[in-house]
Write a structure and sequence with these properties.
With 350 residues, the chain is an alpha/beta fold. It has helices spanning 2-32, 63-72, 103-116, 150-170, 198-210, 253-271, 301-315, 337-348, and strands at residues 48-53, 77-87, 91-94, 120-130, 133-134, 138-139, 175-177, 216-221, 237-242, 276-281, 321-327. The protein folds into 2 domains: 1-33; 35-348, TIM Barrel (Alpha-Beta Barrel). 39% of the residues lie in helices and 18% in strands. The termini are far apart.
């Protein structure tokens, strides 16, 4: 009797163990397995109403809701920003987040959800700082201050662009900005070692990306006047970052915005590029989290709303669209009064 009971009990335990193993395996696969790509929406963007986000800030469980929030403000494209660091002037490093965070998988999940909700997506390589640059604006002296090998730098850049072009292609992303602030490579990234080579460098990267990615390919700049020293023919679009210095006041916003676009206009005739987008902009209103670095204007939440109001009213007919800092570190306006301003303009702009 006891023997039969033990046999039955052992069998039950074995079955439960198998079920538990299968369940664990299914849960593990759901969290770590490949993400099925969702085709991008079947339309072309005539006017960009975009937002910048950082993939590391989004959790899978909140994904659908978070992406719906972006759609609700009227956005038609989401730019997923990937931060780049350069180590010892030669080696390309991506800020991936926590040790157990799979950045490429998170990008795939975000892109698939955005596509399901009818928005296009952009993969945007953001020009950050040397790996030795820390929050607070201080350049550490620990990394190699000597000469650097440009050939090694270019080989690493080529491999880097190939890798991320494949990510954009695999997820059927609408466009890929290979360097959001390529002019920063001359100073911030490489400390001037390759200053004379960077203008031609972008064309080589374009050629490499074309081999692996079929969508639109763009490049970005900081001050628009820098664009004039680059040969950027062949790119599909240009993105320009706009950050005003701390000295600007609300009354001066519109003049500065107009001056900004006046400097952008030569891009059109010089490079025969017909699409110029405001790729990054914003002001800091969350003063309790601001690092002591040059992030530009620091304002109240109401001042941030005024900034965006002036931005849209001044530039809406002078550019081919905007990317705004929805969820973008200290510049993010999510949940602030500026979100209502952006939503109103995005709903009105066609």
């Amino acid at each position: 009797m006891l023997r039969k009971f033990l046999i039955r009990f052992s069998g039950t335990v074995l079955v439960l163990a198998v079920i538990a193993g299968l369940l664990y395996g299914w849960l593990w696969w759901a969290d770590h397995g490949p993400v099925k790509a969702v085709a991008k929406p079947d339309y072309e963007i005539s006017y960009y109403k975009g937002v910048n986000i950082v993939p590391q800030h989004y959790e899978d469980k909140d994904l659908e809701k978070s992406v719906r929030e972006i759609k609700d403000i009227g956005a038609n494209i989401i730019a997923l920003n990937v931060d780049l660091r350069i180590k010892d002037q030669e080696t390309f490093v991506i800020e991936t987040g926590p040790p157990d965070f799979d950045l490429k998988r998170q990008i795939a999940i975000l892109v698939a959800e955005a596509h399901r909700q009818g928005m296009q997506t952009e993969l945007r390589i953001v020009g950050g700082w040397p790996e030795s640059y820390e929050a607070g604006g201080k350049q550490l002296l620990g990394s190699n201050p000597g000469s650097a090998d440009y050939d090694k730098f270019e080989r690493n850049a080529t491999q880097f662009q190939k890798e991320w072009a494949k990510v954009a292609e695999r997820n059927d992303m609408y466009q890929f900005t290979i360097f959001a602030e390529v002019d920063g490579l001359k100073t911030n990234f490489t400390r001037g070692f390759f200053e004379d080579k960077i203008p031609g460098f972008s064309k080589k990267m374009l050629s490499e990306v074309r081999k692996h990615y079929q969508g639109k390919i763009g490049i970005g700049f900081l001050p628009p006047v820098q664009v004039l020293s680059y040969d950027i023919t062949g790119f599909d679009y240009v993105e320009i970052s706009l950050y005003l210095g701390k000295e600007f006041k609300n009354a001066e916003y519109q003049d500065e915005f107009n001056s900004f676009v006046d400097n952008v206009q030569p891009v059109l005739s010089k490079s025969r590029i017909n699409t110029v987008i405001l790729g990054e902009t914003g002001v800091v209103s969350k003063t309790e989290t601001v690092h002591e670095q040059d992030l530009g204007i620091v304002v109240t939440p109401e001042g941030e709303a005024d900034y965006y109001q002036d931005l849209f009213s001044t530039l809406k007919d002078r550019l081919d669209g905007f990317y705004t800092a929805f969820e973008y570190g200290d510049l993010g306006y999510r949940g602030e009064p500026a979100e209502k301003i952006v939503k109103r303009w995005y709903k009105e702009l066609k």
